[in-house]
Specification:
homodimer; 104 residues; mainly alpha; Arc Repressor Mutant, subunit A; 3-stranded antiparallel β-sheet; 4 helices; 3 strands; 58% helix; 9% strand; DNA-binding
DNA sequence: GCTGATATATCGACTATCGATATATCGTTA
DNA sequence: TAACGATATATCGATAGTCGATATATCAGC
C-alpha cells in the first residue's frame, strides 16, 4: 500500500470526499455535509476552500464542469482509494473501542 | 449533552483514552497503542506528553499511583463519557461511509 | 431597490501532530 | 565494570488543519 493512500483523514476532509461521488461545488459540499450529519458537522469557509486546494494538489479530487459562478469538483480514482482506506481505519477504531469499552 | 463531552477526538487522543481503562504510564501507553493497532499508530513523544497535559487539564484523565520513576494515569468518569460519545461519532462516520461508498 | 440565500476566497488565532533532541535509569552481557 | 539497548519523561520547532470573521459578488423574491 502506497503511503499516500493511507494517511488518516480529518472529519471535514472525509465528508468533503464523501460528498464528491458526483460533481458538486463548494457551497453545495457545506450544505451536504451539514445534512448528512444532521447539523453536527459544520465546515467553516476557511476549512472548505483550504481543503479543496489541498485535495486538488494531492489529486484526490478534480475540477469538473465548472461554470463562471460555480466551481464543481469530483473525487478521483486515487481519492476513492484513500476514502476506502479511511473507512477501514475507522472500522478499526470502532472495533477497538467496542472491544475495550463494551467487552466484545 | 454538554459541549465538552462531544468534541471530536484525534486518533492519538482516542487511543490514549482507550489505553487508560486501567492505570498506565506514558511509555506504556505508547507501546499499548502500537500493539492495539498492529504497529500502525505510533504516538510521538511530543504528542504523548502534550496530550497527557491537555487531558489532565480537561479532567479526562487523572494521575494514579505514581512512583518516582513512572507517572501512572487513569481515565475519569468524564473521560469515559467523552470516549463513549466519540465511539458514537465514529459509528456515524462508518455508517455514512458504508451507505455512500457501498450503497447500503 | 432591499434583503437573505447562494457562492468563493483570504486572514489570523489556535490547536494538534510529529520527529529531533535531551536527560536519566535499568537490565543484560561482554 | 563498562557498554549497550530498552525504558521513561520532557521540551522544542516545523508543519498542517480548523475555525470564525471578514470581504466580495450574484441571484431570487418581495
Amino acid at each position: 500500500m502506497s503511503e499516500i493512500k493511507r494517511q488518516p483523514l480529518t472529519e471535514p476532509v472525509y465528508y468533503i470526499l464523501l460528498s464528491l461521488q458526483t460533481p458538486l461545488h463548494g457551497y453545495g459540499i457545506m450544505q451536504n455535509v451539514k445534512e448528512l450529519t444532521n447539523g453536527r458537522v459544520n465546515i467553516g469557509a476557511g476549512t472548505l476552500y483550504g481543503a479543496i486546494n489541498t485535495l486538488l494538489s494531492k489529486g484526490f479530487i478534480a475540477e469538473s464542469d465548472s461554470d463562471f459562478a460555480k466551481k464543481n469538483y469530483i473525487i478521483t480514482d486515487l481519492g476513492r482509494d484513500v476514502l476506502r482506506n479511511e473507512l477501514y481505519r475507522l472500522r478499526e477504531l470502532v472495533e477497538n473501542g467496542e472491544r475495550i469499552l463494551e467487552g466484545r
